[in-house]
Amino acid sequence: MTGLWGKCRRIFGRNRLSQRDAAQLVDALYRKLLLRAPDPAGLSGYTALLREGRGTVADVLEALLTSPEFYANRAELVQRYYPHQRDGFFADISQFGEVSTLLRAMIDTSCKNRILVDVGVMGRSGSNSYDLLRWFGWQGLLVEANSGLIDSIKAQFGPLNYRIVNSAVSDHAGTATLHIGSSDGVSSLNEGHSRMFGATRGSITVQLETLPAILEREQIPLHFDLLSIDIEGEDMKVLSHLIASSPYRPNWIIVEAGDVGDYRAGSLPLIAAFDELYEAVGQTQANLIFRRRGLAAALPDAAPA
């Protein structure tokens, strides 16, 4: 990033920047720190701030470095700029990485087969599967509806132990239209859902399959360790169908649910049997994490929950 910081040093002391310098600097900061081109609002807002002297380069840096997006991209930034130094998943401070080794062994002990299924994988950034494949040696089945992303997924996941299925997932088989969102992460079978995040970029016809059919064809065990579902508005439908129509019971489930507040049974459009089989154990900004009831007791010498 020498060129970026050189530009910053040359203009840092100016009270105001020209339109051209301000726009170039904002564009460079977005591309280097957020790994994307600036959105129109961000570009115009920060450019005006610098051009009119209402803020400094330091102010723009502070805003980007403390943004949720920069925090979410931190692993991708390290991978991009320090690929050879990132030789472990954990940033632990133990003497020689003992804590990392210990935690891996503990996770292995609590898993049945180290198999995951990631429905709506999209790519490495924001992935719920990549770290488990890369640092813990899991096996993966990656499912992606958008055929235009398959080659980039293969490039990003490299030689890890996974298979890719290019198919959309729903509660029935057939064909459907996938609406390509303003970003790949918001593409959806539901056009209205995709348009909530901005204008769509087109559409493609996709093959629909049910999740049980995919799991059976790919010979996934009935109690595989992790199911991650992120398919933009279709998540609850697919999860309910899996529970209602098949014997597959993943040990752990991560599912995108949006901002639902504190989870309680019946608060999502899931069949009643789901809450009888699973308990919520964690929640993030967009996802809920569930554990199969009785899983802890089924592990060797498990302590009471």
UniProtKB/TrEMBL annotation:
Q: Where is the DUF4214 domain?
A: 20-72
- In Pfam terms, one family for this protein is Methyltransf_21
Q: Does the keyword Transferase apply?
A: yes
InterPro entries associated with the record:
DUF4214, FkbM_mtfrase, PBS_linker_sf, SAM-dependent_MTases_sf
All copies of the Methyltransferase FkbM domain together span 137-272
Give GO terms for biological process: methylation
The alphabetized UniProt keywords are: Methyltransferase, Transferase
Q: Name the Gene3D superfamilies for this protein.
A: Phycobilisome linker domain, Vaccinia Virus protein VP39
The protein's GO terms of the molecular function aspect are: methyltransferase activity
Name of the protein in question: FkbM family methyltransferase
Q: Which organism is it from?
A: Sphingobium naphthae
